[in-house]
Design a protein that fits this description.
about 120 residues, alpha+beta, six-stranded antiparallel beta sheet
Length: about 120
């Protein structure tokens, strides 16, 4: 019985969805974002990311236009939507949140979760 419970917990944990955070700000535009990144020594523009498929060792390249990466490895994805521009951070660790709040504040925005809660 303990084995079955552990197996269920393992399956549920491995299928959990990622939770994203977003920096939202009404007056953010691409030019302001690129300027912010170029002036911040902890960030650099990264228009594509590379990963290695652990099963085939194939190099996978994904286009990430106007995204940035921090010196700590946090990836900021620039997203333009119909009525807003936001910066998305996928699956950040809890210890990343204070630095994400600083970036949001420096941009004049706020940090929110997928469900709209403010951090």
């Amino acid at each position: 019985m303990k084995f079955i419970i552990k197996l269920i917990i393992l399956l549920v944990a491995s299928n959990s969805m990622a939770y994203d955070l977003h920096i939202v700000q009404a007056d953010l535009n691409l030019e302001k974002w690129l300027s912010f990144v170029s002036e911040n020594s902890d960030l650099k523009i990264q228009h594509q990311v590379e990963a290695i498929n652990p099963f085939t060792n194939e190099i996978i390249i994904m286009q990430t236009p106007n995204s940035a990466i921090s010196t700590t490895g946090i990836i900021y994805q620039f997203n333009e939507r119909e009525d807003e521009i936001l910066i998305t951070i996928s699956s950040p660790d809890d210890e990343d949140i204070p630095s994400l709040k600083i970036v949001a504040n420096e941009l004049g925005g706020i940090l929110i979760g997928d469900e709209g809660e403010e951090y």
